[in-house]
Amino acid sequence: MQNLSVRHLLGIKGLTQHDIKLIFETADNFKTVINRPIKKVPSLRDTTIANIFFENSTRTKLSFELAQKRLSADVVNFSAASSSVSKGETLIDTVNNILAMKVDMVVMRHPNPGAALFLAKHIHVPIINAGDGAHEHPTQALLDAFSIREKLGDVKGKKVVIVGDIMHSRVALSNILCLKLLGAEVKVCGPTTLIPKYIESLGVTVEHDLRKALAWCDVANMLRIQLERQDIKYFPSLREYTMMHGLTKSLLDSLPKEIVVMHPGPINRGVEISSDVADAKQSIILDQVENGVAIRMAVLYLLAGQQGA
Amino acid sequence: MKVILQSVTVIDPTSAHHLKVVDIFIQDNLIKEIGKKLSVAGAKTLDCKGQYVSIGWIDLHVNFCDPGFETKEDILSGLNAAAKGGFVGVALMPNTQPALKSKSEIEYIKNKSINHAVNIYPIGCLSANREGKDLAEMYDMKLAGAKAFSDGNAAVQDAGLMSRAMLYAKGIDSLIISKPEDKNIAQNAQMNEGQTSTLLGMKGNPSLAEELMVSRDIFLAEYQDAKVHFTCITAAKSVELIKAAKKKGLKVTADVSVNHLYFDDTMLESFDTNFKLSPPLRTKEDIKALKQGLKEGSIDAICSQHTPEDIEHKQVEFEYAKEGMIGLQTAFSLALMTLEKQMDLSDIIAKFTIAPRAILGLPAQSIAVNQMASLTLFDPAATWKFQPSDNASKSKNTALFNQALKGKVISIINNHQLK
């Protein structure tokens, strides 16, 4: 079996093109598996995985859990809506307590940037970052790129625009890093107050006019507005956000070419995209969800294999 | 105490012996004799070949966490670290619990430091209880020994209060120290806004937050014809602003911490909480401007910004970690390593000696017969490693353990003691 260059999946930072190719090829196989009548393989039998979520999550957690179960892993879930610190226990103690029960891998979501890296320095089992604040969400970026590859053949040379709250989005950052690594051109689009001042240092361009951005791109990734991450108001109202940056069917139909529409979910219908766009044939939102399971199976499988090697 | 420093090189531009190799005989707290091949019965002779002596160093910005957080540092452990770092005096910021807000706290600090080789210069609160609302009893604190006034890390946001504080301090012939940060712009962000914060998905604290406050305080100092000292300047534009203010003849001075001279914000790529500082580490361009500012004299002094934190507040997720790094014992080495290509040793040492004394209003000193023996002995060529076993601080929050450093402090002579 081929190996990844990393022991943990903490972010797209640190991955090589070869790593991503390996993950995609492995995911191709698992996608075939989960479309069979018997969706389960014994690859991770006798491996125990803890899903530790310090932040609310529905689909990422479900996707990871399904991926783990399809691989025959034993799964435990730990959720703390509030952080461990507010309960008086440190993150290291919380995780070490779980590891003391002989857990082999950890999937963690945490509200703070760098939390997964911090944990990786202090515990000895592989860690998969399922989102750390506004830093990274590598499996989401991998499944997004995988979905583009599936729909358009290759990511290289494709033009992708990421629309929305770039400043507070780990999906945006991981997507930018992943797409750039794979050779795509990336543009970000959103209200001026939600675009980080130094975003161009990541090798992307900025466009504030949604129509122009859409006319340029092959793929539009419409991010969810994460009001819960904004401690102050960056734009006056959702209504005005939708006026400027909401994707409607009429806007989509007026474009010179057909583009692919993506969304990491959950969708605020009528805010960042209208319902008829979400359900349109250009939308690959549900493919993304399906591919999420395959990508996460691939990552779990590859990291677990490394552990035994 | 009788000590002879044998074959020591003097670094003191105000001394007739500047850059000369001499023997210095010290009795109690006075320099008794300077010459060649001195010999005094009963005197302890130190072979100082290759070593340098300057007037004792002063650190304008340290935190000792006492009263309130004595597990991190107390007055004694802090002063011991200062002695090992070559400092004969430290200005203590009021970031304590309770803050240094009245005569009682100032007297407590003075009493705790009695008979130590290192002098302590407490900085009293500028506002009552460091709340940023009303003036603190500065005059009473001054009588008790406070050398200047500042709200420390709780930067004064109310321009009216700052204006009155400068005016009031002027009336009692004292000094306001500003650690400038506009909290509405900084917004509790944890690191510098820049390429690195973008790459890390971290909210950025732009240098604008500092520059706005530097501008404001310069305007206030001009309006009130009062003195203001900026501590821990980090941004290139702040240096420009201070340079312009000085050119205008305003009574503005500034210091920079060694951390902000030596490290830039890319150190945070690994989310190492030792590099979480307030103000945050800035960019390489800022460092360049800070060094130029030091060279030109826009920035007067270099401080350690010694800020102890215990492991419980450092070995946690980055966002929950407290700001600060200990620095007394490594301040000189970092300053030397980062500045030696641009500045003469004598000019670097002046940033630890002549400038901080002038800012705090301490009497000027010189290496001459019958002058006070308040001296620092050091070897700028020596290389060493800061070992955890050498650490005199109670806290271990430094990124410099086991790192190769250049420039070693040998000892200090102050208050009748060789330490």
Would you mind describing this structure in some detail?
- The complex is a heterodimer of chains A (309) and B (419).
- Chain A is of the alpha/beta class and 309 residues long.
- Chain A has helices at residues 17-34, 59-70, 91-99, 115-122, 138-152, 170-181, 210-216, 238-245, 249-253, 275-278, 285-308, and strands at residues 48-53, 74-79, 105-110, 127-132, 159-163, 185-189, 205-206, 219-222, 260-262.
- In chain A, helix 6 (170-181) links the parallel strand 5 and strand 6 (185-189).
- In chain A, helix 2 crosses helix 11, helix 5 (138-152) crosses helix 6 (170-181) and helix 5 crosses helix 11.
- The radius of gyration of chain A is 19 Å and the shape is globular.
- Chain B has helices spanning 75-84, 103-112, 138-144, 159-171, 183-186, 195-200, 208-224, 236-247, 258-262, 284-296, 331-339, 345-350, 354-360, and strands at residues 2-10, 21-27, 30-35, 44-47, 52-55, 57-62, 87-92, 119-124, 148-149, 176-178, 191-192, 204-205, 228-230, 252-257, 301-303, 375-385, 404-414, 417-418.
- In chain B, helix 7 packs parallel to helix 8 (236-247).
- Classes of the chains: A alpha/beta (309), B alpha/beta (419).
- The A-B interface holds A 13, 85, 90-92, 110-115, 117-118, 122, 132-136, 170, 173, 196-199, 201-202, 231-232 and B 187, 193-195, 197-204, 206, 270-271, 312, 315-320.
